[in-house]
Here is the input.
Amino acid sequence: MSELAFSTPAIEPYDPSLSRTSASSTDEDEREQGLMGPPVLIRPKRALRANVRNLSFWYGGFQALHAVNLPVVNNGVTALIGASGCGKSTLLRCFNRMHDLYPGTRYDGDILLLPEEKNIVSEKIDPIMVRLRIGMVFQKPNPFPKSIYENVASGLRVRGITQRAALDERVESSLRQAALWDEVKDRLHQSALGLSGGQQQRLCIARTLAPNPEIILFDEPTSALDPIATAKIEDLFHELRSDYTIVIVTHNMQQAARISDYTAFMHLGRMVEFQATDDFFVRPSHRRTEQYITGRFG
Ligand SMILES: Nc1ncnc2c1ncn2[C@@H]1O[C@H](COP(=O)(O)OP(=O)(O)O)[C@@H](O)[C@H]1O
Ligand SMILES: [Mg+2]
Here is the structure.
């Protein structure tokens, strides 16, 4: 099933030097400094699409997530922020069972997909089915070495859509949704690799949107792009946020403030605070959150 391999996105190899976890302070020290305390989690007023409940995760013997809770609002943007190495990507990758591609990884707890309340990290659920329903866009644009058209169409073909007219229609509407159509409509059958970095990332977004996934995960989708390309992608979020459920990791707090409806702050594998974005940056409930957003650590 080489076609199905498509739904398993390329993973960036793990480079421990890119992540760092502060080992200098223990939980005990933090409690003494009044920094730990119980996490603050506001119940969103909006309908949820997913609910992360007491999710723990291990890479071999290393526990990277500790009983994390996170509501994911339906048709909205949830941003994950926190210092490098705090577990943002690890949490995001649980949503499409990407960790299952590596031996020795283990989940405990739930990510309930709503409304069915299906626990997508359960061993009973096939990770390939999860990846068909939950799309992901990576930090570095990773178009397939195929035409622009085929990049968008291939995910549709995998899902059984093969009629030319249906493919044409969905390819066009996805490219329009990704604000790329006008730039590529005259060269749909040329290689995607000829596009600029920002265009490639919008193509990857179109490819992810095409099969209409239930949730779309973005892991720092603009950190490899220049400011103009970044602004175009941020504009796109404003268009997509009312129709798609999005979870985005960003190390850029201004970006989280600009594009998200809810913001979650993680520290050392734990969820510290979750609030409506408008409140999060103005009235953080937790001292550690305040320190982070005012730039006093991290
Ligand atoms: N493949 C892996 N194997 C072992 N440890 C990992 C792996 N990937 C990440 N980690 C560790 O898990 C923790 C969280 O990493 P990560 O989720 O990448 O953080 P973030 O995305 O917030 O920078 C870090 O301590 C990191 O070193
Ligand atoms: Mg990361």
Summary: The CA atoms of residues 222 and 231 lie 9 Å apart. Residues 164-177 form the longest helix (14 residues). The pocket of magnesium ion (ligand 2) is lined by residues 88-89, 249 (CB under 6 Å). Residues 1-25 have pLDDT under 50 and may be disordered.
